[in-house]
């Protein structure tokens, strides 16, 4: 089956690297030694050669890549969607079925190669040929394409029709089974390259990525690369064992705080639909949770990052008369990340408040740092206070932080901290409500049938209020807390009359217990 | 985790003598301090005497080799070896808990609000939607004047969002709850690039935005004035992603691009402080490990990788023969033990970061997963896809 190529259409960008890997697998799948055994299979009355079943494909992928059936099916399905394998029985449906459905390997000529797009002329020929084969068989979207192409490449139309007729004639001379297979092949190709509306367009790759990484420009070689490498070589590094040890340690330390790995109390809102967890951990909640307060002791960063932790730390600092340190640090953050137009103004305010001799909240930094800072303030910019900020940060971290963790302020916070109960409560209430409702309904039905509530027919004692059912429930409630709630609700149901009048009537009927 | 501070030196430039913030630079093997303008000029200079393009390239290559040698000297153990003592993870059950339907076309990007339940998402048709994903209610919607809104971000205060794409800009929209709110009216155009916007993020406040672009640069902007505060040059091709370091002491961010490089930048000086080139294809996503000492990347080469910043090297590759399609988006669980990665084969793979093995594979989306973020408190993750939907998934180890 020849395709005409009127010169190469514009190239697609070649960035998807999955193509090479799929092609390798496809070749393996068809290899006589390691591949799937193909055989002639009957499709309706025709015997199509070199066919495989969907199940064969899935099993082969499963074995070859050592994956689960679900994964193998998903991957195989993608191979069909991308046009590397095509279906023989439901040609319109590019999916893989893990059963006896029949498939064939697409000829490499038709593989979705990224370096040239499927040609409009070829598509026109295909549609014209389809039309010749059986008039009116074209789908709506195909008719639209056909009409559009007729206009777009009208100057070639004689050529298109001639080619279509030639191909149709050549096709008729083939054996029936070859013709059928080639039809399916071609159809699959065009389903991939001219996707019908509503179907997944697998060849869509997003937008074109612009810059060519292969351009050789002097400025891209000298800077940053030569300059960068020169600096990078001199950089201090840490031994792998040390830094990797740190990474592992961090993960272990935070394991219990990771809701996906350890759950969270009272419950994960997304799973239980209960936002309590968020309320209990609100930014400046009155009483934080224990996990949260314990986290402040992991490292200084955890403390200062948490607004509640920072608030508590500030209390401690005030007691030590070093509250201005945190204040200064916060002011520096505001300078760095705030409005650019206010930089000069803020820097001056900070100087007056924290750095000037005799300043109201004077911070204690060494002479050298003070010198750099004051000089820098002659030409203020966002990072002008960096040196001073670092100094104060380190002071808080290495000095105040340790004492804070041992202080009564922190210890009190820890002691007050709340440990939420696991959110069985909501489930319990839901269950109780449902069961209680059922009991209510049953009771009402019984009343309708027998003229009174169950249990009241028997010994409803005005003093003890007990009934057999009530008793069993009470006994159960002793061992199982769930029944406690049900018991309470059912008790309410049984002692609560439909209308005041009914109660009086019942009472008259009931005999007092002995 | 300590980071060394580069105190910004402010003084007379060694070249032009003007008083400006200075950067250390190597000129003919000698250390100098140039202002950023002079650095730029030096960078765009033509060849010097006795230099050819080839000789420059070979000098760069030999320096690169030397750097790799230096890096290898301190490499004494592999990550999975250190992780041997760590308990293996058990079975995983993650389920979709919320499906957000409302976009009319491919979802390209999403970001969480600090309140742990609201999200902003953007799509190919130009729509940007703010959702309360807990209730699945749409709270705000705006239609951008361009298609392919590839970047969106929630402001730290929760009072604004930023977005951009094929318009080459990053715009900030304040969020109000006024009746008859017309979000488009209060729009502020902040960033201007010369090609598409691929990523954006607020820094520690609503007043500054960091952007990445198809024009090969990243930039830091002042929201109020739209002023460019710092630009970051160095990628040789489109920059596709960025992430800010979580630390209070560092002021760095990492970016990934079509030049297969992941680069770490000093926000104050605009300098690249570290660079890694081990991927075989475009890097679509970068994300810091929660401690800030490492970062992960996801690439079109179908692998995700972990880079240790203190050891200055790649320390893990997360790949499998059955994973053939590119990874589009990655994020860590709260403890950093798990790495969630969305792929172009519509699946999400969950990796054990320390042991290097895949813990779970999640199906559900019907087209590429284009964006994935874990919620701020780690209770769930949200994935956005070309199938027009966003899904919030949660679960746990059993």
From TrEMBL, chain A:
- State the membrane topology: Peripheral membrane protein
Family matches, as SUPFAM superfamilies: Regulator of G-protein signaling, RGS, Transducin (heterotrimeric G protein), gamma chain, Winged helix' DNA-binding domain
Boundaries of every DEP domain copy: 32-107
Q: One of this protein's Pfam families, by short name? A: G-gamma
Q: Which UniProt keywords apply?
A: Membrane, Sensory transduction, Signal transduction inhibitor, Vision
Q: Which SMART domains would you find in this protein's record? A: DEP (SM00049), G_gamma (SM01224), GGL (SM00224), RGS (SM00315)
Provide the protein's localization: Membrane
- Domain (RGS) spans 299-414
| Protein name, per record | Regulator of G-protein signaling 9
The species this protein was found in: Catharus ustulatus (Russet-backed thrush)
From TrEMBL, chain B:
Its keywords, alphabetically, are:
Coiled coil, Repeat, Transducer, WD repeat
Record keyword Magnesium present: no
Indicate whether Transmembrane appears among the record's keywords: no
Q: Name one GO biological process term.
A: signal transduction
Pfam families, A to Z = WD40_Gbeta
| WD repeat ranges, renumbered to this chain | 100-132, 190-231, 232-275, 276-317, 329-361, 362-392
Q: From the UniProt record, list the coiled-coil ranges.
A: 50-80
What family does this belong to? Belongs to the WD repeat G protein beta family.
Q: What is this protein called?
A: G protein subunit beta 5
Q: Which organism is it from?
A: Catharus ustulatus
**Gene assigned in the entry:** GNB5
